[in-house]
Write a structure and sequence with these properties.
Structural class: alpha/beta
CATH topology of the largest domain: Quinone Oxidoreductase, Chain A, domain 1
Shape: globular
CATH superfamily of the largest domain: Medium-chain alcohol dehydrogenases, catalytic domain
Distance between the termini: 15 Å
Strand content: 25-35%
Number of helices: 13
Largest sheet: 7 strands, mixed
Length: about 350
């Protein structure tokens, strides 16, 4: 076992499968044999746009959602051994910088992102091994546990938004992130309206508990459609899970006076939005953004997955070998799949 097949990202739509050396674990590190990796919207945006803050240098290993089996452990790794099934998040904070000291670990100044899930093996660095690597209980599928990282981000988003059971919440976007928001908001007990543009994805939202769905391609006035479901007020909380400036503006528009908007979907660098400052001030609309996860939210996501609160069969709609990775992204771009499980 000297070499492995790995997907390397060279730039926009330039993804190459190459034979590279299998890394050896150093002190505190763990080598994991990947059983399942999952595609995600962040990877798709990166594939199309050619860059992302999680990838500082090119060419780069690619992919960050995965679960697998420990192949080898480095010195000073305790409680893990070869053969242990594990789920792993893609970063861990330093716990020493100013942001970590005030509890904003997701903004850690020394946050290093782990890429390379679209490979046969991945080397997990010591900070992640210590903070964000979890054993997978017997009988729990790898595909479900590979959702650990994105679900942790959604758990973060739900808690920071402060959703209550008496709220009416709107989720804009029926992709995997939006659908996970639907499921967690329903666990809180709130009413959920989902806005999307693909009927089969809206049906997935219904399966996860959405009370109402709105196909934005069939509504001339989407804002009026939302108000008709909320006695003319607008919703208490909006989750924007798409990441386009015009959709950010729509999210603010459908929020009631005194409501809250979570601009969760990340827009392309250099873009801007227009905000009605009069409405923002006098209607006291609250706007926040939530980025990434922390070890606390990873732990919460792990518990949800182990308990079976998330149905991976709704979210993972296709499966492909590693050799079909580029085709998987093209399928996602055509809106023909939610998440695609990649098997090395």
């Amino acid at each position: 076992m000297n070499t492995m097949t790995s997907a390397l990202f060279y730039g926009a739509r330039d993804l190459r499968l190459e034979e590279v050396p299998v890394p050896r674990p150093g002190r505190g590190e763990v080598l994991v044999r990947i059983e399942r990796a999952l595609t995600c919207a962040t990877d798709l945006k990166t594939y199309i746009r050619g860059s992302h803050r999680m990838i500082p240098h090119l060419p780069s290993p690619f992919g960050h959602e995965f679960a697998g089996v420990v192949e080898e452990v480095g010195p000073d790794v305790h409680g893990l051994r070869a053969g242990t099934a594990v789920a792993v998040a893609n970063s861990a904070p330093c716990n020493e910088c100013d942001f970590c000291r005030i509890g904003r670990h997701n903004l850690c100044e020394n946050l290093r992102f782990l890429n390379g899930a679209y490979s046969e093996y991945i080397l997990v660095p010591e900070p992640i091994v210590k903070q964000n690597l979890y054993p997978i209980p017997s009988g729990v599928p790898f595909e479900r546990m590979a959702l650990l990282e994105p679900l942790a981000c959604v758990v973060h988003g739900v808690e920071r938004t402060g959703i209550r059971m008496d709220h009416v919440a709107a989720v804009i976007g029926a992709g995997p992130i939006g659908l996970m928001f639907v499921r967690l908001i329903k666990l809180v007990g709130a009413e959920v309206i989902v806005l999307g543009r693909t009927e089969w994805k809206l049906e997935a939202a219904r399966r996860l508990g959405a009370d109402h769905v709105i196909d934005v391609t069939r509504e001339e006035q989407v804002e009026d459609a939302v108000r008709s479901l909320t006695r003319g007020r607008g919703v208490d909380v909006v989750i924007e899970a798409v990441g386009f400036p015009d959709i950010w503006e729509r999210a603010i528009a459908i929020t009631r006076r005194g409501g809250k908007v979570n601009l969760f979907g990340g827009c392309e660098a250099g873009t801007a939005v227009r905000i009605d400052t009069h409405a923002l001030h006098y209607d006291e609309k609250q706007i926040l953004s939530v980025f990434h996860h922390t070890p606390r939210y990873v732990a919460m996501a792990y518990d949800l997955l182990v308990r079976g609160e998330i149905d991976e069969k709704v979210l993972i709609t296709e499966r492909r070998p590693l050799s079909g990775l580029a085709g998987a992204f093209e399928m996602m771009e055509r809106r023909q799949a939610l998440k695609i499980a990649i098997a090395p």
